[in-house]
Amino acid sequence: MEDKQFNLEEAKIDQQLFYRIPYKYLEENKLIPICEPEPGTVQIAMADLDDIVVIDEVERILNSKLIIEEVPEDVLLKKIEQCHSGDAQSVEKVIQDLTEEDLEIIGHIREDQDGVDVANEAPIIKLVNLIIWNALQMRASDIHIEPFENQLLVRYRVDGVLHESSSPPSNLHAAIISRIKIMADLDISERRTTQDGRIQIKLGSREIDIRVSIMPTVWGENVVMRLLDKTALMLDLTDLGFDPEMLKTYTEIINSAHGIILITGPTGSGKTTTLYSSLSLLNTQDVKIITIEDPVEYQISGINQIHVNPKVGLTFASGLRSILRQDPDKVMVGEIRDIETAETAIQASLTGHLVFSTLHTNDAPSAVTRLIDMGVEPYLITSSVIGIIAQRLVRVLCPNCKQPYETDAEEYIERLMLPEDSVKKGTQTYYKPVGCDECRGTGYKGRISLFELMQTTEEIKKLTLERSAAYEIKKQAVKDGMITLQQDGWKKACAGITTIEEVLRVTEEA
């Protein structure tokens, strides 16, 4: 610790560090992270240098050694508030300023339930509107409202990562949940079981669908709201992140007359967007396209979309059989979950239809072994599957603040399983996130897909008939020219689109 007085007012705060520690924690413990002078070391300012417990906690949170500067409490709190002003707006202020008309709810709100008066009071309406409005401003995909013993936590998932925001008082939890239930046409008196609903809102010219999931927990009901902004849906394949050569090959595959095209990857990897973009390219007046989905996330003009309903017997398999009697040219099945759906999709492809579907596998070659494990005969796979895509979503570096750096490229060859001849020797320029107002201090803004595309060549078909392991199929696919997820990520990192850390984060299990 230095004896001279540290000038916090003139210090430039690293916003990425600032957002790594919850705002309430900074305010309560009167401290603020400043910068990272070198890897593994963080400079912080504190009012109480003797609070060893807090110092130990911050070291664990940041996973770094601390350089601690002593700063007066009033100066610290002022600086924390300045940095926080770019975060979600103050709940108290916006409750006063926001009007009910700022968000228009599409649909009828029921008023025949007990407790509806409290949930329809103006402050609660404004508060729930604020939570949704903030999410839209932040480009969030999900809102999490989570009750704990002494607090109510509101978090937003932005570019795949959760961020804590200003949270309302915990005593408003019941009223907030009731208001959301009313908006989603759910039973506000039922608190013992899960409930799912839907809200449609209009913000200016934007129409947003919100899928609501409510689940009881120890401290009360937990809410997750998935935001589906129709205006933000990318339906152009060129915007998704395809390598130009891969896009050319994929475009040729989806223009085939018949066959099965599979999109694979974990939940939240962008499979649905790729499917919709593919179908939109094929959506012309002379083509009939029918989809069966669970649920229908986006409604696309000119495409017949069906929502599965197992309660009345409308499953993927039964729905697909009915679809084939509707004389479609192209069919999309939301997911192949069982042998019945798989065999029905294969029969559809063998009778002259182009079928799109998804599977939950780590990479493209694993889709073949997954179908065999389900019980599909290998000869049916080789005669129907014409292309398999695996994908992941990585965060895109903020163009306003990213910084280049150089390091030895060879250290990543083994971790990314890259062919040695694909990496030039010596140092390589990469880019790292910094954080600025444009990206809310995260260093990232938006997401892009990593892809690998496996065509079913004669050699791949031979391995499939022999029931070969996925790694053998992958080895052959690479020999046939397949660019792996890791290689595609490497290219995007070298181009300054994303970071090596992001690529490793989403592909190390693939």
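the 2nd protein, sequnce then structure:
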Amino acid sequence: MGFKMGIVGLPNVGKSTLFNALTKTASAQAANFPFCTIEPNVGEVGVPDARLDQLAEIAKSKQIIPTRMTFVDIAGLVKGASKGEGLGNQFLANIREVDAIAHVLRCFEDGDVTHVEGRVDPVADADTIETELMLSDLESIEKRRANLVRKLKGNDKEAQQQDRLLAAAQAMLEDGKPARLVEVDADDDKAWKMLQLLTTKPVLYVCNVGESESVDGNEHSAKVAEMAAAQGNSHVVISAQIEEEISQLDPEEAQMFLEEMGLQEAGLDRLIRAGYDLLHLETYFTVGPKEARAWTIRQGTAAPQAAGVIHGDFEKGFIRAETIAFDDFISSGGESGAKEAGKMRAEGKSYVVKDGDVLHFLFNT
């Protein structure tokens, strides 16, 4: 599985510029990281991972297939979206379908680009969108709880659980806080996720700064960093202007340009890595002469479920996983060397896959 990140923001903050630049940058990278447009506002990119190239080189793999990430450029938001203002309803419906929200905030001064509120205040912008999401969730909760009344009278256990969770979310929202702050027991985790409340989505703040501020940020991005830390969310500093310039260059020119700007890597790479951290994702690999391939799983995933990411039959008929840690695969010169060095392990159903594991699954058909 990859993951889907919705890119949101007020008008004129650089949201669509960033989306277009990131997806063009991805297509301009090596063929290992292809980009394809699924819809006009949906882009799928390969996740850059230097480890995959190392594994492919040792195994002499004919093909390299990265794991994938989907960006969704969600319709611009205005105040009142929860009541249908602007493209409010479309905006809110699209957010329900993503795993996380990348909230682009204007952190640059430019008199030629008008701010919808007539000022540059990224913290206030973040509050505007959060408020609209909270209002939408409150309205949704009230309707859903009203629809549960009949089932509750009949002592329906599932309805009781749903109503209890909705009540907890409602109390949090009425206190002016997002539903993601509700503490949920493990027994309620599945039912909680199925509520699909907008304010349960983890948030990554993307500070869009000017070109000269791309390395260290500025006073606006510093305020966003402070806000994100207080909320337990993440932030990343990116210049959409730089990303747009990079998107027009070939990989070699792009790398030279980044070095001249004092940047280690493109914004796409930093955005993906921040997204992985935010969603507690990790990568495992399958490697052979035919292909070297990366797969995305959530941290804490057991071997059978990791196998199921490749194919449901792998999970159903799981027998065991032959496992080599990434460092052991590299230092041993591949699978044969790892076997001879005693670095290959046979792991059963209870094994929790670790980031970088090179796996081969055995299963019954």
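Confidence is low (pLDDT under 50) at residues 27-38. Residues 122-147 form the longest helix (26 residues).
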